[in-house]
């Protein structure tokens, strides 16, 4: 992320958001995850 100018990049949450859903097998086949992240752009 440094090339994009971000600093302090961190992943704050990660989960298999399709667990238990009818699309679960498709999501697993493609490695689909829900992710929250944060970073800052220096002034």
Mind explaining what this structure looks like?
Helices cover 16% and strands 37% of the residues. With 43 residues, it is α+β, with helices and mostly antiparallel strands. Strands 1-2 form a two-stranded antiparallel sheet. The protein is elongated, with a radius of gyration of 15 Å.
Compute the average pLDDT: 89
Overall, the morphology is elongated
The count of DSSP E runs of length 2 or more, i.e. the number of strands, is 2
- The fraction of residues in strands falls at 35-45%
> How large is the radius of gyration?
15 Å
Specify the number of helices. 1
Structure class: alpha+beta
Strand order of the largest sheet: 1-2
Order of helices and strands: EHE
What proportion of the residues is helical, as a percent range?
10-25%
Distance between the termini: 16 Å
Describe the main β-sheet briefly.
2 strands, antiparallel
Low-confidence stretches: none
Short description:
With 43 residues, the protein is an alpha+beta fold.
Strands, helices and their partners?
Blueprint: E1 7-15, H1 24-30, E2 34-40
Antiparallel strand pairs: 1-2
